[in-house]
Amino acid sequence: MSQNDNLEERFRQLEQEVMGKQQTNKQTHEPEKRAEPEFATISQGMNAAKTSLSSLINWVNSLTGATKIAAIVVIGLVAFSILNFVFKLVTAAISISILALVGFILYKVFFEPNPK
What we know:
The chain is built from 3 helices and no strands. It is mainly α. The longest helix is centred in the C-terminal third of the chain and has 46 residues, at 65-110. The chain is flat and about 85 Å long. The mean pLDDT is 85.
């Protein structure tokens, strides 16, 4: 019995603490701040890409001789590997969609009950 009384008393204390915090928030008239995601627009993304590309070009132009050639080769390899990755993703998406279409047609032909 005393343990239940202690739990109830502790619950009431916690409830009073919470209610007191809520009342102080209302008294200060501060709206509750929620973390809202920030969405980047397409123009912001394009501007970021342009600035990144221009800074990369400026960095390559600041190099001399063999280091400039090596940097251009490495940048080209990275660009082609990214392009290859994107093409593989598109190919996989097309393959999966074709496979899903074939599976759907086979389901309709063999497993769906015939309407009368």
